[in-house]
Write a structure and sequence with these properties.
elongated, about 750 residues, 26 helices, single chain, Beta-Lactamase, five-stranded antiparallel sheet, alpha+beta
Amino acid sequence: MPTIEGRYRGLLEAAPDSMVLVNQDGQIVLLNHQAEKQFGYRPDELLGQQVKNIIPVGFAERLIADGTRTAAEALAQQIGTGIELSARRKDGSEFPIEIMLSPLPGADGVLVTAAIRDISVRKEAEKHLAQMEARYRGLLEAAPDAMVVVDQAGQIVLLNAQAEKQFGYRRDELLGQQVKNIIPVGFAERLIADGTRTAVEALAQQIGTGIELSARRKDGSEFPIEIMLSPLQSDEGMLVTAAIRDISVRKQAEKHLAQMEARYRGLLEAAPDAMVVVNQAGQIVLLNVQAEKQFGYRRDELLGQQVRTIIPEGFAERLIADGTRTAAEALAQQIGTGIELSGRRKDATGFPIEIMLSPLQSADGILVTAAIRDITERKEAEKHLAQMESRYRGLLEAAPDAMVLMNTDGVIVLLNLQAEKQFGYHRDELAGRPLRAIIPEVWTIIADVKQRIAGALRSAGNSKAQEIGAGIEFNGRRKDGTELPIEVTLSILPSAEGVLVTVAIRDITTRKKAEARLLQTVQELNRSNEELGQFAYIASHDLQEPLRMVASYTQLLSKRYKGKLDADADEFIAFAVDGANRMQLLIQDLLAYSRIGTKGKDLLATSSENALERAIVNLGGAIEDSGALVTHDPLPDVLADERQLVQLFQNLVGNAIKYQGAGVPQIHVSSAKNADAKWLFSVRDNGLGIEPKYFERIFGMFQRLHRREEFAGTGIGLAICKKIVERHGGEISVESQLGQGSTFRFALAESSEKC
């Protein structure tokens, strides 16, 4: 006995079950601490006693059979497949046990080692399972997640098939075991807190907001889980139901999301539609914020879930077909021609959607990108359109223009009375025929119309009719073959039968005739103006010769007879000389005015600064006589007729010198870019100034603000300036106050070339 004691004591005490050594006479020769606890005896009370005292039936009878087994045969008998008997404690109470008997050769002969396991919990669980079978089995087995029921001691009392699959155990291997065997950390600590929650509180805790822990399979491998704990009242007291979801896919999705973040996040988030990326197993691996908004889930609630959660039918069935399409084929499928299905929000409400599926090559294989558009408004619009059909027909008939509805293939589906009258057909003769029957050239814009329809639908997404073409002119053809000019306006109109196009057709025969008359009038006016300008040029040119003769002879009379006749004769001769001189100046100015439009040169790159310098040289005598100070900023190159630009500066600077008071004339010329990217020139002086009421008048022909005795001139100078500026595509204006000088402004186009 001492030899056995030293050799086996350590092994016996380390065993998790009760261990008893029995000799061939059925006497207990050794036991461990677990046996003392299990049977309620002190060691000295059992040693030497018959094993029948603690296992009344079934043990002693097996000593011979088991005693004759070899060691190898004994080792082959697993404890889990042991013998179920009934044991008796010191207090007389009995409890179920499972024993395994193994021979142990010793100095005193063969002993039998009995490993004794209390299976009360398991038996209670089996009993409890039988009681709960009808009530819970259906619910547990139907659950998509692993379901485990645990008592307050942390022992598993019930589980479903999903739990067996998920953890790799048979059901009987887990029943009665501690839940820590499959969820090492985080579960047992929550039993008290969760066990005391009410059913209402438990139901309020959604599985999507559960606790993330780590689980351990039978093979020792670990995997991430999400659990929800809920209390379950039973006859044996409060139990805790644990719904356990394997979130490996979601975690892989999160990892995958991190890898794809840089590449796809910007594109996905910028998309106006809900975007969902799904793997070949139908699990959601990526989604954008529009998908969260559209379906009412947080991102983490959808990642790893089956796409059927949000699109119950029609999506998963298409994964194989769409997954094998090429990227080019996928891109060819427009969202506007997508698949119409029904989506389901988190709150279980359904709504109509249109999806387009496209393959996406990734490191994890082919994924499928789903662009999902909520078409609720469009469906409502179609319903509304159907309801408004009779009302819309009334509007069509009341329209003053011919109105035709065609489909996207250009076939007429509806028309009004005005269309019948305008083209001479009965309604039934046009319905179903192509629009080109009445507008032969319409085929030239049909392709463009289809593109505009697609673009308008993508940008609008609502039921409002949108104008996609206005003011397009064609020739219409009546039934009798005659043609008429028409103007067409196109608008899209979503309907229950698809997209229609409203074609408003206006007969513009009267307008075309008016335009022709106006064009003829304009041509006649231009010809008249040209002839008038030519006449003015010829007349002024031809008048100069006789006028020079008159002026020469009157001047000769003045020189030869001045003082030889009476005072009246001298005065009359002076009037004649002055009149001839003024007439000569007037004709010269008229000739210059007429030449602006007829004798002008092409507008070329011209230095405005050089043009101003030439004008100053031409005005040298007037500048010297008046002592005028003419200054300027650096001036740009412009597109201009150089000779006319010199004349423009000469007239404006000359006027500034002429219309001056007692002081010294000061004129400054500057330029700056205006809002139209033209050069705006300013000619500022310190002269007499002009009252605002004369600002328009001074640019007219023969307009003078002063008497001839005060200032010489014909009143054509500023009219010439105005015509020069207008020929250059600009306008001239003045700002002034009486007695404070004037600023004349005009704009010229910038030259792209350097002079």
